[in-house]
Amino acid sequence: MFKAIVRFSIKKKLFVGLTTLFLFIGGIYAMMTLPIDAVPDITNNQVQIVTVSPTLAPQEVEQLITMPIEIAMSNIMNVEDIRSVSRFGLSVVTVVFKESVPTLDARQLINEQIQTVAGEIPTELGTPEMMPITTGLGEIYQYVLKVAPGYEDKYDAMELRTIQDWMVKRQLSGIPGIVEINSFGGYLKQYEVAVDPDALFSLNITIGEVFEALSSNNQNTGGSYIEKVKNAYYIRSEGMITRPKDIEQIVVTNRNGIPVHISDVGIVRFGSPKRFGAMTKDGEGECVGGIAMMLKGANANVVTRELEQRVEKIQHLLPEGVSIEPYLNRSELVNRNISTVINNLIEGAIIVFLVLILFLGNVRAGLIVASVIPLAMLFAFIMMRIFNVTANLMSLGAIDFGIVVDGSIVIVEGILAHIYGKQFRGRTLSKKEMDAEVEKGASGVVRSATFAVVIILIVFFPILTLGGIEGKYFTPMAKTLVFCIIGALILSLTYIPMMRLFSLNTPS
Description:
Elements: H1 2-11, H2 13-33, E1 46-52, H3 58-73, E2 79-87, E3 90-97, H4 103-117, E4 129-130, E5 139-147, H5 157-172, E6 178-184, E7 190-195, H6 197-203, H7 207-216, E8 221-228, E9 231-237, H8 244-248, E10 251-255, E11 258-261, H9 262-265, E12 266-271, E13 289-294, H10 300-315, E14 322-329, H11 330-360, H12 363-386, H13 393-397, H14 401-404, H15 406-423, H16 431-464, H17 468-498, H18 500-503
Antiparallel strand pairs: 1-3, 1-4, 2-3, 5-13, 5-14, 6-13, 7-12, 8-9, 10-11
Helix pairs in contact: 1-16, 1-17, 2-12, 3-4, 5-10, 10-11, 11-12, 12-17, 15-16, 15-17, 16-17
């Protein structure tokens, strides 16, 4: 079979040449569109369920929230592990699925069980929610809002948090590949009513009545419409709260025909909910910032580039004296890793090329064998795109070009031995004789070269069978090397014999 492939490659030079051209074009396209990241994502296939309940202690969170959720999740199929964390006011349940379960299918199964267990958890204790579709490596862009000198008195922690939540976060949302923007630091602005217990007691008003008045008076009400001539006038009552003065004017109850307003029983002011932490920077005090979370499986290089462009636009929309200052950008790490990989590939190719010239004794033969390296890499890029292998430091940095061109070297040596044997006898080979000698030379060693490459490939099979974190970390490297070696083997059986007229007519 191998001899037939070599014979076909020699007789159908145009077909092999066009196929090589298509390989080159397809490989360039795959290389340009291949997902790029710094390191492999070793996060397992998991879905996290978070429930926030600020009023419960850890023991109560475990008993009233975490345990019912765990029991409900234990009935889901294809679940490998369920683990949980119960803290003050927070429950986190992590459900780990088998790797074969699609992410969206896993989330659908979780959502169905959440709806089932929702009836067992009182609404006032909290509502279970699923975390976004991201992983531990999803934090690709982190930043803080920097206040220029001279504007410190104008923008406090609450004002910066408002800018972050209502301007920066909303502008960054919607970028393809970004699943969530998390805000950190500052004080979350909210309306507060500080009731006066003495005023409540003197007017015989309960806290429940105050709550009821606030909730029922914060809504718009739609009515019917009035037709007049050709027009229709819609009736609408506006009652949404837009400012603290609106809250002060809300009527709680009536006493002897006199309305009692919120302002009569308390003070309306801006405040913030209870904080469980703060964000600081460089020991200079509190700051406000955010983290952009990337969608699982997205191209980190493309997403960070889109983020940088959006941040440049947002900078012009921010209030005077406020700017976005990134302190972690995944693109910097990705670019450094790409630079490291490119340098290693170039240096390795040069070393292999020099060694080939030294041992083959033919510059043009060395060029042909060396040209297999980029073509095999392009073939590997195509296969990586098909099998969803990310280009990163682990998958590309471990490529050994000496192993890749091993089969090509053996076949070129076999071809040179036959051609030089004829030429040393003083014969000048015709085109037909050259074809015959190339076929004899390649056919004589093709079986040995192929089996040598197959033995090398067998070495990687145990790595391909690894599972868990080890498999996620080392399998991309093994797959990339296997793709590259297979591509080089195919090229050695087709491309190398076809190129013999380019350089092997005379020794050099």
